[in-house]
Amino acid sequence: MLWAFRLLVVAVVIENSNTETLLRQLFNQTYDVDMKPSDDLTMVTITPNTFILLSMDQTQETIQYSEEFLLKWFDPILSWNRSAVAYDKEWLKIEASRVWLPDVIITNSISIDELLDKDLQMADLRYNGEIRTSLPAVVSSPCPLRIENFPYDVQKCNISMGSWSFDRDFVAVNSSVDVLWPQKGRIEGNSEWELLSITMVRSDNYDTLMESWFSEVTYIVTLKRKPVYYVLVIQAPTFILCTITIFGLFTPNSNEDERLSKFPAFNLRFPVFQVELCLNMFAAISMMLQLVSDMMPKASRLPLLGNYIIAEVFVVTAATIAAILIQQVHHHVHTSAIRPPNWLRRFVLCDCRRRRNSVSEVSTTSSVEVPEQAIQSFTILKTSLHQTAILVRDTLQRMSSVSENQLLWLKILDKTDLLCLFLFQMANVVVTVIYWR
To answer: What residues form the membrane-spanning segments (predicted)?
Structure first.
């Protein structure tokens, strides 16, 4: 057992000695980490290893994500013949600060918080001169938003990578993959955004100040918003609120003239309940609209959810105006007792027939002979009673006509309430279906 341990220690010492010998051979006095090893083109291959979306600031139009991009390139100076050296392994792990690193960065980043200090970063060196390293960091990048379809929108954010100093004749970049699909724990979005894909586009951009072409790789991150929160918190309550408001507008609390409240100072009657209900609804809707505007950047166009709220405001406004007009018509016909037009009665009530009352004529036939003076007195009394009967008949007919007209208008306006209730609720449902995807 002791001999086995001693042999293991000797093997480790020999391996370390072989590694040190190889390192001294590679990194001699002629190698400078601050200078590009060769004037030839260096092709840097980028491989996205990790991309996890952390957050999106929609008002500032930026995204924050955790990433790790693997970089691979060839350094012709740092190669060795495996048969000519004692080090027999294919790869050699060294400190990244000991080799020349291409200045490939995320060119459109706002801030980069590296997860490893530069002194702790390592690089893998292969015998043929291939070098691999990684850039783990938390990055913030701009992401212009198109909010027309919010909250059912799909956004595309660009992550551009390339050399900061070297043009395409010295350093060029390429990607090892063209498309990346979501992978649990490696390529994914967050609780609000679903990552659909990451696609690669390679391009050469001309810098007018440097008068040079620079190689660049752009990763297009496609994100789809999860709309459940906005539907349950904003859209569904708005629909329910508008539905209840329309029911309240066209459900009269009384069938009498008390449907209108009186303002003594102006001698006016007005549907206060309907107006208060509408104003309360507008106050709640304005809070919903303010909530949406606080989430979105200040753009020239309203998002889909904002358009839905505005459309619901117009529906309720039209319903309120219709309810006020119905109430005012009810008050007018109740006080004036005018008879509804025949076409309106036929159209709304389908059958309205005016009932006429008649007073029977008083019979004057008598077979009893009476004195002339008595006949004259009776004639005067009969005439007086007949006139009184006619007056009572006319009064009863007038009262019956007023009550009948008021009842007819009440039936007409009740059916008008039901018709408006149906029409505006249908408009409410249609608007919701159009904007609810």
So the answer is: 228-251, 272-293, 305-326, 418-436
Under DSSP, the state recorded for 233 is I
pLDDT in tens, 333-359: 767 767 767 766 666 665 545 444 444
**Cα gap 194→221, rounded to integer Å:** 11
Tokens of 66: 């955790």
pLDDT value, residue 10: 38
Reduce the DSSP state of residue 268 to 3 states and report it.
strand
One-letter amino acid of 390? I
- Which residues, 6 or more positions from 402, have their beta carbon under 8 angstroms from its beta carbon? 337
* Amino acid identity at 372: E
DSSP string, 357-420: ---PPPP--------HHHHHHHHHHHHHHHHHHHHHHHHHHHHHHHHHHHHHHHHHHHHHHHHH
Least Cα distance to 212 among 165, 158, 160, 162 occurs for 165
pLDDT at residue 11, rounded to an integer: 39
How sure is the predictor about 389, in pLDDT bands with cuts at 50, 70 and 90?
low
Q: How far is CA 284 from CA 231, 288, 309, 322, in A?
A: 16, 7, 11, 21
* Phi, psi at 138, each rounded to 5°: -105, 120
| Per-residue tokens: 332 | 């007018």
Q: In whole angstroms, what is the distance from residue 339 CA to residue 401 CA?
A: 8
pLDDT in tens, 111-159: 999 998 888 899 999 999 999 999 899 999 999 999 889 999 999 999 9
CB 42, CB 170: distance < 8 Å: yes
Output the CA angle 69-73-78, nearest 5 degrees.
130
pTM of the complete model: 0.76
Per DSSP, the three-state class of 264 is coil
Longest dimension (CA), the chain: 168
User: Hey, CA dihedral for 311, 316, 322, 324, is it positive or negative?
Assistant: negative
- Reading across the β-sheet that carries 104-106, which strands appear in turn? 104-106, 154-163, 212-225, 193-207, 179-180
Spatial separation of the C-alpha atoms in residues 51 and 382, rounded to whole Å: 110
Tell me the average pLDDT across 380-406: 65
C-alpha gyration radius of the chain? 45
DSSP 93-130: EEEGGGS----EEETT-SEEEESS-GGG-EEEEETTSE
